[in-house]
């Protein structure tokens, strides 16, 4: 489970875009809507006990390391600040960087630091600190994928309060890269001093031990008023144990507890269920390269017509999710809502399979893992549905380590998953452009590549939007993905907790506005 | 005070007529359960893998015991899920008993092999068994039941060999075996013709115990996400799969748990009646 | 994990201590030599086991670098990560390095770059606390149940205890745990559902230990009760116990004064051998109750192919099990020596 958590965590790491103005609009199970009464003016004080997922063996305290644990990322994100943070509208909000602007050719971006930003020991944040931190990040093994196109030497300071990033290619989406991992430390912080290194965030570290931590309010935080006195983070191995802890009153918030916990909690009036839509995609990957049984686009189209999307959402996600339309990045404000929803059509599917000469006598292995709840179940249910179309699918469940080593990126037919689904361009760049390092389906489509280059190289908003639409249309028609639905991110909280995060993916760590009634 | 002393050829109670009837009574529950498990798939009201209700739906409607994690009928899966578990546990028990008997006899007749078995068992006692299962099963190409059975056999044999060797040791130094050795009989002859007939009771008891152990190991492997491929049903696996929804539909967990416990008790009953009590106990700890 | 570790106890070849009442210093010296020899033998076995573990983890698909890698990393990034973790060096070299650092108390570095000693500093004592509590409880319970059954051989009590014992060791810890959790916490709210720790890294309240300990004790007691009952059955068949019965001594006295002392070596060895099971159960119980021990560390470490961390857990657990086995050997040797 370990690697998966991390992969979920970083799936959206490099980019991502607007998250929907989430939970309020999410539907029936949402009891989080906050009445705007006078009663709900934030109160100061109190300690919030929050549970987050993590494994004792995978603990890391390095803000630039691979954070396998959601609990570790939460602690780091509350103690240290990134240049920008995910937002609802616009999708990128200022934090340590107060403002930013590109050159005309979209390669050089200047970030101006927030006034009054200071470390917990009182010393002010300088451009040198930021440059040192970004270079440190860039020089980790995953640095190249976290800051794609930006060489370490192209991160520079300009005066005391401006940082300049120069990209190798035009990148209209560059500020999105700085939202999630650009934690700023004091220049020349030694590796063995990371555990206690002062940050600039809304909370200061009181203690950290074995994955659990206590954080206390930073009274002089530059970016706003913090209401809570303290946050206590408890690490949980399983969502089930975390949900039990909440039900038994041992914690106040269970972060990312899952749909089953939500249904269990629905009967309890003293517990709020918060839904953060578009949190997790669990697409089925069909290999498009020659030699694969799915190389013919008609076969892939047929598979997309075979799946019963409503049943998948209802049975696999317990209804805590939405039907999707085979385009990844459903939370993007530019997501193509006007592409007609694909529905189950067994007649058409059979016709397409016959035309393509698909071998119906064979049994096809669909490889899956139990990395995240619902993944193996989605494969099982799909196999059941495919049988109704005369396609024999056999589910093969692999252990996580074996799956990522043997099947991922090379298998003909397997399930995958991605967290933080708020950018269409993110998925295009990571998984569908023919040169992408993690091109999961081995897809190479000239028209798609061209559309992608146009999107990231265009400064004009309307022209970009048009190119994005074209890109999504091609993806809908021909890609190697079958995306049947999107799972909600689900947090549970006791009734007294207010101001909880509403964004999917990384948005879940934004606890600086929380207060207790 | 050696436990094995009682495992000798004379340890069995003389079987009287009422004793036979009682033995039959004790075998009956196990046989009945096995029959039910075998016939279960034909009695199941629904198929194994088609959702009929909401995930973890409480009992009601078409589902007598409610729904499982995908909304499939718990009762139908319960009826389907015994065969494979019993078959796997049986396979483990047969393989371990067979290998242990052969190796145990050989170890007694060939001291060098006996020492090797001792050392292996000494090492494997220090290996956390969970780690053992994971290492064997994960190194196995492909998933499924195979690796679990293999792990259970591989890790169970060293101990079982000790039991057989312990029981066979006094026999090996008995007059008739020594006589056979001096006649120049081969290893196979000695093991099969001289030792084995007198180890019947020990082997039978060992088999019963290994079956119960097999059930335990398969369940534990399921907990570690190693085991049968979906959509297969398996009592042991059902417990883990449905545990997250235990507050929504407790039957998804309770029913298979009870089935596993019942299976263990009835197999124990049967084994107890087939093997003399004293031997059965001796096997537990020696 | 029983098959594996519900073991048949070792037929001890523990050399009996000098039988005649020798001078005290000589006996003490002999004892020391005996202990040192047995300890050295067990240490050697542990080294063999570690070598096996290193090799086995290497044989699994994937390695620590692929497990720790983030999606989107290129082959070059992965190679850099592999180099950082030292995975580009041969297996024997890494094993040798780990083994030579061991005497200094250095258990290496985890795949995430933390010191293994630091990662185990809190979990190991926590698991020891859990395991030791369960161990003591199971010894007491199984002795009591075993004696109770043996006092009524063949009667209903005896048979009931026998079946209950078998049933309880066949039911895996996670079934027991889930049921306990349901009844004692989620339905009734009597006990805390999970363990949370404070700034000292230990469980915040002793009540958090109850369910994990009980979940471990039930299957373990089932097994050990059978061992006790079996050992007592053998003792009752010995001439001196039969003689005691013929003398008309009360059953309780025969059992406690005559049968039990003779059965102690077999019981000690049997129970000691089954301590390995406790760690197997701990993985499950710790996960379900979120108890911060080495069991959970172990399961995660295998998924991460984190060899130094796995080896660290193995050596801690192995050392603990070895100590118990050693104690059982000594106890056995003493009893055998004293009775001779």
UniProtKB/TrEMBL annotation, chain B:
<keyword id="KW-0813">Transport</keyword>
<dbReference type="Pfam" id="PF00528">
    <property type="entry name" value="BPD_transp_1"/>
</dbReference>
<keyword id="KW-0812">Transmembrane</keyword>
<keyword id="KW-1003">Cell membrane</keyword>
<keyword id="KW-0472">Membrane</keyword>
<feature type="transmembrane region" description="Helical">
    <location>
        <begin position="84"/>
        <end position="109"/>
    </location>
</feature>
<feature type="domain" description="ABC transmembrane type-1">
    <location>
        <begin position="86"/>
        <end position="271"/>
    </location>
</feature>
<comment type="similarity">
    <text>Belongs to the binding-protein-dependent transport system permease family.</text>
</comment>
<feature type="transmembrane region" description="Helical">
    <location>
        <begin position="246"/>
        <end position="271"/>
    </location>
</feature>
<feature type="transmembrane region" description="Helical">
    <location>
        <begin position="23"/>
        <end position="44"/>
    </location>
</feature>
<feature type="transmembrane region" description="Helical">
    <location>
        <begin position="121"/>
        <end position="140"/>
    </location>
</feature>
<dbReference type="InterPro" id="IPR000515">
    <property type="entry name" value="MetI-like"/>
</dbReference>
<dbReference type="InterPro" id="IPR035906">
    <property type="entry name" value="MetI-like_sf"/>
</dbReference>
<feature type="transmembrane region" description="Helical">
    <location>
        <begin position="203"/>
        <end position="226"/>
    </location>
</feature>
<dbReference type="InterPro" id="IPR050366">
    <property type="entry name" value="BP-dependent_transpt_permease"/>
</dbReference>
<keyword id="KW-1133">Transmembrane helix</keyword>
<protein>
    <submittedName>
        <fullName>ABC transporter permease subunit</fullName>
    </submittedName>
</protein>
């Amino acid at each position: 489970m370990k690697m998966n958590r991390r992969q979920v965590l970083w799936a959206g790491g490099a980019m991502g875009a607007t998250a929907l103005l989430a939970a309020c609009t999410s539907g029936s199970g949402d009891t989080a809507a906050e009445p705007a009464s006078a009663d709900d003016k934030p109160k100061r004080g109190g300690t919030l006990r929050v549970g987050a997922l993590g494994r004792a063996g995978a603990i890391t305290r390095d803000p630039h390391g691979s954070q396998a644990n959601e609990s570790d990322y939460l602690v780091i994100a509350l103690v240290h600040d990134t240049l920008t943070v995910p937002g609802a509208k616009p999708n990128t909000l200022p934090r340590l960087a107060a403002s930013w602007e590109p050159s005309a050719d979209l390669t050089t971006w200047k970030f101006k630091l927030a006034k009054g930003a200071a470390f917990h020991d009182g010393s002010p944040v300088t451009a040198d600190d930021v440059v040192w931190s970004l270079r440190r990040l860039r020089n980790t093994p995953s640095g190249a994928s976290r800051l794609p196109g930006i060489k370490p030497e192209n991160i520079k300071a300009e005066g005391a309060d401006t940082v300049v990033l120069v990209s190798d290619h035009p990148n209209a989406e560059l500020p999105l890269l700085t939202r999630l991992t650009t934690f700023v430390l004091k220049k020349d912080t030694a590796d063995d001093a990371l555990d206690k290194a002062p940050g600039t965030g809304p909370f200061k570290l009181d203690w950290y031990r074995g994955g659990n931590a206590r954080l206390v309010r930073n009274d002089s935080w530059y970016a706003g008023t913090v209401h809570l006195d303290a946050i206590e983070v408890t690490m949980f191995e399983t969502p089930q144990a975390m949900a039990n802890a909440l039900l038994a009153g041992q914690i106040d918030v269970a972060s990312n507890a899952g749909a089953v916990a939500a249904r269990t909690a629905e009967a309890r009036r003293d517990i709020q269920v918060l839904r953060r839509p578009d949190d997790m995609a669990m697409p089925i990957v069909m290999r498009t390269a020659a030699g694969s049984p799915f190389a013919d686009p008609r076969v892939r189209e047929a598979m997309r017509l075979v799946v019963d999307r409503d049943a998948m959402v209802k049975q696999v996600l317990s209804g805590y999710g939405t039907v999707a339309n085979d385009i990844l990045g459903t939370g993007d404000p530019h997501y193509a809502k006007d592409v007609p929803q694909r529905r189950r059509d067994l007649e058409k599917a059979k016709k397409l399979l016959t035309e393509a000469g698909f071998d119906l006598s064979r049994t096809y292995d669909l490889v899956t893992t139990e990395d995240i709840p619902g993944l193996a179940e989605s494969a099982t249910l799909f196999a059941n549905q495919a049988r109704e179309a005369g396609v024999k699918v056999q589910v093969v469940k692999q252990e996580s380590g074996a799956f990522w080593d043997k099947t991922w990126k090379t298998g003909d037919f397997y399930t995958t998953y991605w967290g933080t689904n708020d950018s269409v361009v993110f998925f295009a760049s990571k998984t569908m452009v023919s040169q992408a390092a993690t091109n999961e389906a081995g897809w190479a489509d000239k028209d798609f590549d061209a559309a992608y280059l146009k999107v990231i190289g265009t400064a004009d908003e309307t022209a970009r939007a048009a190119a994005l639409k074209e890109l999504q249309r091609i993806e809908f028609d021909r890609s190697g993905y079958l995306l049947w639905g999107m799972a909600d991110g689900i947090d549970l909280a006791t009734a007294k907790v207010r101001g909880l995060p509403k964004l999917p993916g990384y948005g879940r760590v934004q606890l600086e506005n929380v207060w207790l009634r | 005070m050696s436990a094995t002393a009682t495992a000798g050829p004379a340890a069995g109670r003389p079987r009287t007529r009422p004793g036979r009837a009682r033995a039959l009574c004790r075998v009956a529950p196990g046989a009945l359960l096995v029959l039910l498990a075998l016939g279960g798939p034909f009695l199941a009201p629904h198929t194994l893998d088609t959702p009929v209700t909401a995930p973890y739906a409480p009992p009601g409607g078409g589902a007598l015991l409610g729904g499982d994690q995908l909304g499939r009928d718990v009762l139908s899966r319960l009826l389907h899920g015994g065969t494979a578990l019993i078959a796997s546990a049986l396979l483990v028990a047969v393989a371990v008993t067979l290998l242990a008997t052969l190796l145990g006899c050989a170890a007694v007749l060939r001291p060098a092999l006996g020492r090797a078995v001792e050392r292996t068992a000494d090492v494997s006692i220090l290996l956390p068994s969970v780690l053992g299962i994971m290492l064997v099963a994960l190194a196995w190409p492909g998933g499924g039941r195979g690796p679990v059975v293999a792990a259970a056999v591989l890790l169970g044999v060293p101990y079982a060999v000790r039991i057989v060797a312990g029981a066979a040791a006094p026999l090996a130094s008995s007059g008739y075996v020594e006589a056979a050795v001096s006649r120049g009989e081969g290893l196979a002859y000695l093991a099969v013709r001289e030792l084995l007939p007198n180890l019947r009771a020990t082997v039978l008891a060992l088999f019963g115990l290994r079956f119960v152990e097999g059930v335990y190991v398969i369940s534990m492997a399921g907990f570690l996400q190693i085991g049968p491929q979906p959509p297969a049903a398996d009592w042991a696996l059902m417990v883990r799969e449905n545990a997250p929804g235990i507050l929504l539909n407790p039957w998804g967990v309770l029913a298979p748990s009870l089935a596993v416990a019942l299976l263990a008790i009835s197999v124990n009953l049967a084994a107890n009646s087939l093997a003399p009590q004293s031997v059965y106990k001796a096997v537990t700890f020696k | 994990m029983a098959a594996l570790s519900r073991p048949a106890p070792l037929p001890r070849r523990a050399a009996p201590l000098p039988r005649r009442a020798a001078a005290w210093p000589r006996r003490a010296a002999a004892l020391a030599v005996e202990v040192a020899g047995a300890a050295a033998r067990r240490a050697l076995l542990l080294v063999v086991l570690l070598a096996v573990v290193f090799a086995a983890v290497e044989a699994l698909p994937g390695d620590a670098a692929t497990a720790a890698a983030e999606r989107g990393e290129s082959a070059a990034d992965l190679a850099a990560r592999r180099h950082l973790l030292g995975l580009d060096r041969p297996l024997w070299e890494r094993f040798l390095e780990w083994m030579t650092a061991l005497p200094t108390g250095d258990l290496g570095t985890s795949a995430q770059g933390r010191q293994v000693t630091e990662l185990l500093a809190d979990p190991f004592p926590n698991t020891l606390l859990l395991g030791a509590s369960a161990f003591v409880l199971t010894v007491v319970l199984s002795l009591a149940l075993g004696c109770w059954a043996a006092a009524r051989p063949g009667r209903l009590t005896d048979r009931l205890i026998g079946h209950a014992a078998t049933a309880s060791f066949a039911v895996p810890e996670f079934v027991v745990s889930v049921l306990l959790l349901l009844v004692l916490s989620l339905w009734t709210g009597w006990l805390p559902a999970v363990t949370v720790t404070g700034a000292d890294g230990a469980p915040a309240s002793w009540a958090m230990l109850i369910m994990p300990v009980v979940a471990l004790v039930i299957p373990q007691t089932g097994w050990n009760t059978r061992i006790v009952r079996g050992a007592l059955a053998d003792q009752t068949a010995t001439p001196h116990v039969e003689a005691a019965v013929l003398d008309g001594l009360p059953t309780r006295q025969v059992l406690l004064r005559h049968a039990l002392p003779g059965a102690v070596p077999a019981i000690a060895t049997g129970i000691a051998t089954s301590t390995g099971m406790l760690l197997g159960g701990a993985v499950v119980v710790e996960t379900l109750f979120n108890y911060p021990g080495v069991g959970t560390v172990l399961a995660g470490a295998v998924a991460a192919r984190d060899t130094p961390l796995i080896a660290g857990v193995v050596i801690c657990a192995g050392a603990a099990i070895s100590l118990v086995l050693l104690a059982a050997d000594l106890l056995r040797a003493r009893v055998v020596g004293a009775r001779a």
